[in-house]
Amino acid sequence: MAEQIKCGVLGLGRLGYWHAENLASQVRGAKLVNVADPFGDAAEKTAQKLGVDNWTKNPAEILEDPNIDAVIIATPTSTHVEMIKKAAENGKQIFVEKPLTQYVHEADEVIEAIKKHNVTCQVGFMRRFDPAYSEAKRRILAGDIGKPIYFKAVSRDPGAPPAEFIKNSGGIFLDMSIHDYDVARFLIGEEVTSASAHGNILMNDFMEEFGDVDQALTYLTFESGAAADIEGSRNAAYGYDIRGEVIGTEGSIIIGSLKHHDVTVLTKQGSTHDIVPAFPERFKDAYTIEMQHFIDCLRLGEKPIVTEYDGKVALEIAAAATEAFKTGKRVKLKTAAVKA
Amino acid sequence: MAEQIKCGVLGLGRLGYWHAENLASQVRGAKLVNVADPFGDAAEKTAQKLGVDNWTKNPAEILEDPNIDAVIIATPTSTHVEMIKKAAENGKQIFVEKPLTQYVHEADEVIEAIKKHNVTCQVGFMRRFDPAYSEAKRRILAGDIGKPIYFKAVSRDPGAPPAEFIKNSGGIFLDMSIHDYDVARFLIGEEVTSASAHGNILMNDFMEEFGDVDQALTYLTFESGAAADIEGSRNAAYGYDIRGEVIGTEGSIIIGSLKHHDVTVLTKQGSTHDIVPAFPERFKDAYTIEMQHFIDCLRLGEKPIVTEYDGKVALEIAAAATEAFKTGKRVKLKTAAVKA
Amino acid sequence: MAEQIKCGVLGLGRLGYWHAENLASQVRGAKLVNVADPFGDAAEKTAQKLGVDNWTKNPAEILEDPNIDAVIIATPTSTHVEMIKKAAENGKQIFVEKPLTQYVHEADEVIEAIKKHNVTCQVGFMRRFDPAYSEAKRRILAGDIGKPIYFKAVSRDPGAPPAEFIKNSGGIFLDMSIHDYDVARFLIGEEVTSASAHGNILMNDFMEEFGDVDQALTYLTFESGAAADIEGSRNAAYGYDIRGEVIGTEGSIIIGSLKHHDVTVLTKQGSTHDIVPAFPERFKDAYTIEMQHFIDCLRLGEKPIVTEYDGKVALEIAAAATEAFKTGKRVKLKTAAVKA
Amino acid sequence: MAEQIKCGVLGLGRLGYWHAENLASQVRGAKLVNVADPFGDAAEKTAQKLGVDNWTKNPAEILEDPNIDAVIIATPTSTHVEMIKKAAENGKQIFVEKPLTQYVHEADEVIEAIKKHNVTCQVGFMRRFDPAYSEAKRRILAGDIGKPIYFKAVSRDPGAPPAEFIKNSGGIFLDMSIHDYDVARFLIGEEVTSASAHGNILMNDFMEEFGDVDQALTYLTFESGAAADIEGSRNAAYGYDIRGEVIGTEGSIIIGSLKHHDVTVLTKQGSTHDIVPAFPERFKDAYTIEMQHFIDCLRLGEKPIVTEYDGKVALEIAAAATEAFKTGKRVKLKTAAVKA
């Protein structure tokens, strides 16, 4: 078996902390050696809590440390381009949270850097590693539903993020539906050729100021003529609701359910089970599994199943959907070039 | 196609009225020509409401009317023996509500009368006609679960009947679990060889006076070695709960669910659907289908799938379970003789 | 209680026959006195089978018969305008299958005729009477999910109809999604203000010849800013799949499920229940209940909950969706005028 | 926060290995310092795989090591009495797999030793820590179903263990239903006062030689008059099936379901999801959580929620059920004494 991968985590917000925690405990073959966060005492506290030997307020200390094999980039999206390029230049293996970068042209830059320095890059589309989504993929590959021809997705947050977040989020298509754009490609197994999009503000009037909406619908077409519709919503008063369907020529797969605890309470008011309240409860395992996949790939010299290319393509779809929403017109995509 | 079957209904309590209503409207090949009930104006009102030409307070008017082909006996159980014998003597075809009679020795009398006068008799075990139970039987016969080896049943009422009813009910094993005894024979496809039984009063202390319980459990064995456990309960505060499972050597069938309307409401409190509140909502279709089966059998000269013999066997099992409950001992059954 | 309503059925295709059967047996307060169909011996056979005294090949015999109170129009859509006008002129109460007419301008004509002759008209949007949809409406009115802000519908047929049908169907938006347009208005409780639409041929290449698609998506907006997305599909290899969701400010309602028999089979291959195979199994009760509603309204002098106006509005939405699909542009609706 | 608890694992069969793995990675506050197994190279291999510094073939090395704080006893049941007593004498904190001991009198011995040496003991009834069971307990304590009056349990293995295992298992009541006896006490919140039991061989004739059965039913009564029925089975050809229900005076709780992956496949054959195949998939989390509870209790100086007393009581119920099964008579329990 290969050596342990020495890792540093950059950015200790909620996701960065989870990645650090997973690397410190659950992930086999990894050793968390340093954590960085410029704000307050986040790095120091994390290091203490997780038993990590080093911490710093300066990401460069990790990016330039010759003792570190791989970096996990969980800093704000606007910094991804710089972080990834520096990491590549220093020969670090890279795990970067989604989206890969804020803009498509930045994605080209980081792809070039990654190629030039011959490092590995995995993008944090954790749904591919969720046991339900990966089982769906397995069933599709097994031919259980014939050829996939339609994908339908519902992603609903239990409420809107604060204005501060919405302001810098890039809009619902980039911030939220991007997960389903990636999953659509993953499950249909083809590239997207066009995007149409609609959206409205149903509950959160404050979003108007930022040109954003709390309810979005994207219609995608694929190379073979397959299609997809993807709903993104900030309006699920009842909980966190992530579901998908893949319709094939011989059957269909439904992914996900609302059930949280495996307990049902029967009273005069009816039969009730609780609903997954938020994304940690829904995707906790997926975050662990994606990080294990990253480490396993590094140790085995294999390519992750979701790379910087997938990061860029999802970004292009999100940009096309955003444009389609703003112009009211269908926007064509030229993703074929990416794969070349 | 044969002539229409001219029917008379005896006893217009809830079930009798339903049978009358079904015969007056939904059942093909039947004509309801008379209804009888000794109490108040039940017969007159029913005749008016359903557009029936005749009504009477005297069952004998129907039992002796040469113009009537078939009678539906929905009078109190204690009168069944007399009603069935008179009906048979007058050459009437007979549908009788469960239980066939109150005592096993009475069952022998009516079986003799039915045989002697060569009439048809169907007993009102409507569950055999419920779409879920009959689909389960079909799947078993299709071999989908291999050989059936165990039956498990839950029958829970949403509350206890009044003391007046309990007093004359014959006890929970005879009044309630008898449905599952019949279904057990139907689904396992074999005769019962022994019964053990347990029971306790969990909520309704008034039952102690009548030697009855509100929670009962029967354990049955079958000829081939198969077994069953059957729960009967008056304590389902949440609704009417009828479920069954047939375990086979290669799989299992689960029958029934709690869902009433095909609607689920999601709120912060969870995901809720309403529960079947009582037996009419659960078995309305079954009552219609069983009556259609009775009429179809008469017109086609065929034997119903559930006859006086099944009525007697279920009664014997109920008697054995009651004895087992009272003595704390396993009681053996000699049903083989019945079939001869 | 009022007199029985004497009814005649025009057109004895599948739906016309069902309506006739329901009127002949299940519907209280109605008497089926004549049935008409120009093709072969459909009318004669139906009359014999259902015990109807008269039959004819000529609809005019029914439309002009002074003895008939109400007509059920289940003839081809292209004949609706003529049939409804004649019926109104003859003072007949009218039940007409959906769509009300083929074109919006025809709808105006029939609305005028109905108004002029002061007759009642109910349109066959049976989903409003389906126990699941009407329970959903009840729960919304009860405030269980707050204010409805989004409607999501899936309607999938288990396969495409033959080319002959598609040719004259008016396209998937008019033929299929129109049910969901009506339900969307019913459940959201507002008028639609715009329609956008997308569609592709995923499996049935023959549809290209007719400018139709087998997969359609409509995005609607409503007066208050609410929105909806509605999928119509001919590609559900697995069965007949009708589902809906109403998202409200405080919760959500899911309508419908795929379960057919209330039986689940467990084997090494997993836990399996069968799926509703086609629309009769799904909506049989709804057809009976809508006809009962029509007859009840006539007897009580009340207005049906779904009239010629609803028929016209649904037609307008379907026309707008079709135009939106063809032009790739959002089409605004002016339905407010209709209500005036 | 307290020091890390230094642990040694005795017995590296499947469960012992899991406990070792959990202690080596997931459990916070624990350090696995030694592992013991007398057979082959199990200890050496486990130490290498999990990165444990020491291994041994001799349990005494761990039991007598002053450097070790706590031992996890996962050796054969027949050795528990000796292991626990030695551990207590050496002042070790104890986690012992269920059952506590093979015989009730041995349970008394170990309870005395534990008391004398003032050590903590947790018994491996992991179901109490399963998220579904613990949520059920929480809901009961919250009063959501009123007062619990009945418990119903189904525990079905996907097949019978080999003859070699059955021979030494103590029978189905001790080996299998003991989990539900403990859960029944946990959820009802009372002591058991009597046990009745039934059982048959439905599929595995070889069990006759050992006086064991593959299908068992236990009926329990509780101090307040509550009751329970508990099915244990080796005959679930379809998978691993663990379910429970707690009926209360105001509602009921259903615990567990059969669903494995959160994916449903729809085909012409129906709607299918896969079933939990075996106990690791069902209870993996529970094993981790129970070990975390053990370590947390040691660090916080608190008493585990399931101790040697619970281990003894469950053993007494299993012994009573076994006797009831053999004699055909109800067996009373005197568990009140235990608590004193």
From TrEMBL, chains A, B, C, D:
Keyword terms: Oxidoreductase
Ranges for domain Gfo/Idh/MocA-like oxidoreductase N-terminal: 5-125
Residue ranges occupied by any Gfo/Idh/MocA-like oxidoreductase C-terminal domain in the UniProt entry: 137-333
Top-level taxonomic group: Bacteria
This enzyme's EC code(s): 1.1.1.18
Listed GO MF terms: inositol 2-dehydrogenase (NAD+) activity; nucleotide binding
Sequence similarity: Belongs to the Gfo/Idh/MocA family.
Protein name: Inositol 2-dehydrogenase
Organism: Bacillus taeanensis
Record lineage: Bacteria, Bacillati, Bacillota, Bacilli, Bacillales
Gene behind this protein: iolG
